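STRUCTURE:
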């Protein structure tokens, strides 16, 4: 019996001890899972040793710079996006301002945390532990408060009827912690792939990076001196050996160490430059970026990008890293924060254009194309830039002379009429004839 199974059994002592994991029926397995959670539940939080000999769990992985940067960048970028509620009934899009769920997500979920911090923490826990949780407090079916939950404080269970409920640790009163059961309809549960922690699944890759990091730290801690062996050409007593070792250790951190006569130092291990520890750490840092689908350039790593410029890298990051996570978050919010009658016509959407806020050139080019092709009006552009509307700014224009769309048909008929140029030609002929007559008279 492994460590994980042993921990599970510790929490399921009330079950039949004769129940065997091998050969059990589906009904028995359902009872077991109902008490202990999914098979991978405990493995997410128990440290596992990687092939590099380093124990890796989510909390230790978070202390590694590359892992921290990837999680912080993704969580912060999504949290800064306004999440808007649209009514899509009758094939039209209308922003909904009076739904309390919008205020909870964008302003404050509980009157204490900001909406930014709440969503940033929720996404960070999802990336680190594979699951992020929030407790929805309702009144008359409407959400009135969202309480962020730590991933270690939640265990979820699935009943035979397919329903899900959660056992959570209620920390509202620090002096009276208690475990309560909450219906799955009242828990926002964001899941990463298969609901498993990416750092746990990829513990070998992260373990190698951690081992290289520890190796470098130990090297500098020893003052750049590698592990070695002191040898003497003459026999030495225990007292002399102890004195020699103490003298050698006391010189730690000095660029030059003094040894007595007839004492030689032989270094063990591979020299850092020959071991290419810097290149190894850079390669493994890029491997960690692949785990989170993060372009290395987005967290300051040199190289690792196949794109010609940074703009394409940002576009790839937005489309293939942020957009899928935003879609997953939106689906969970739609299901847990909207009433059943609203779910047919209303949808939460992240405003991805907010990522262009700091890029004036990209924003200008985007608005210019939208205006020239009549997609946006000037007042719609001003609204996106937080400017007040102007008179006449609701008219949509196109690039041809920037005329109103309502006049486009009349303009098209005018310029394409078969006799449109005839009067001009006749006038020219008349002028020419008059010139000829005058010439004749003059002659």
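SEQUENCE:
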């Amino acid at each position: 019996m492994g460590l994980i199974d042993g921990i599970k059994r510790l929490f399921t002592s009330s079950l039949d001890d004769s129940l065997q994991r091998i050969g059990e029926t589906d009904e028995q397995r359902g009872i077991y899972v109902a008490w202990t959670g999914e098979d991978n539940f405990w493995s997410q939080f128990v440290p596992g040793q990687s092939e590099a000999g380093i124990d890796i769990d989510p909390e230790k992985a978070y202390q590694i710079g590359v892992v921290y940067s990837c999680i912080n960048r993704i969580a912060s970028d999504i949290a800064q996006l306004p999440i808007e509620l649209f009514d899509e009934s009758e094939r039209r899009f209308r922003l909904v301002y009076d739904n309390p769920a919008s205020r909870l997500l964008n302003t404050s979920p509980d009157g204490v945390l900001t909406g930014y911090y709440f969503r940033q923490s929720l996404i960070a826990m999802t990336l680190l532990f594979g699951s992020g949780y929030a407790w929805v407090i309702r009144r008359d079916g409407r959400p009135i408060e969202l309480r962020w939950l730590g991933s270690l404080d939640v265990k979820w269970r699935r009943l035979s009827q397919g329903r899900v409920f959660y056992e959570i640790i209620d920390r509202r009163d620090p002096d009276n912690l208690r475990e309560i059961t909450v219906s799955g309809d009242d828990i926002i549960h964001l899941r990463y792939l298969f609901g498993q922690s990416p750092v746990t699944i990829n513990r070998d890759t992260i373990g190698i990076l951690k081992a290289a990091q520890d190796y470098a730290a130990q090297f500098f801690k020893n003052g750049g001196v590698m592990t070695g062996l002191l040898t003497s050409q003459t026999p030495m007593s225990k007292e002399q050996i102890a004195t020699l070792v103490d003298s050698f250790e006391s010189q730690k951190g000095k660029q030059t160490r003094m040894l007595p006569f007839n004492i030689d130092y032989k270094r063990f291990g591979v020299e850092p430059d020959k071991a290419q520890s810097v290149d190894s750490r850079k390669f493994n840092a890029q491997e960690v970026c692949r785990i989170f689908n993060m372009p290395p350039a987005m967290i300051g790593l040199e190289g690792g990008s196949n794109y010609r410029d940074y703009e394409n890298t940002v576009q790839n990051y937005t489309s293939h890293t942020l957009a899928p996570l935003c879609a997953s978050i939106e689906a969970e919010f739609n299901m847990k924060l909207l009433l059943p009658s609203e779910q047919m016509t209303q949808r939460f959407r992240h405003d991805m254009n907010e990522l262009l806020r700091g890029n004036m050139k990209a924003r200008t080019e985007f608005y210019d194309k939208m205006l020239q092709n009549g997609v946006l009006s000037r007042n719609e552009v001003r609204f996106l830039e937080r400017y007040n509307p102007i008179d006449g700014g609701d008219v949509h224009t196109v690039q041809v002379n920037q005329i109103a769309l309502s006049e486009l048909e009349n303009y098209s008929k005018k310029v394409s009429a078969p006799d449109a140029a005839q009067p001009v030609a006749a006038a020219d002929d008349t002028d020419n004839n008059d010139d000829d007559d005058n010439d004749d008279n003059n002659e």
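REMARK: Residues 310-337 form the longest helix (28 residues).
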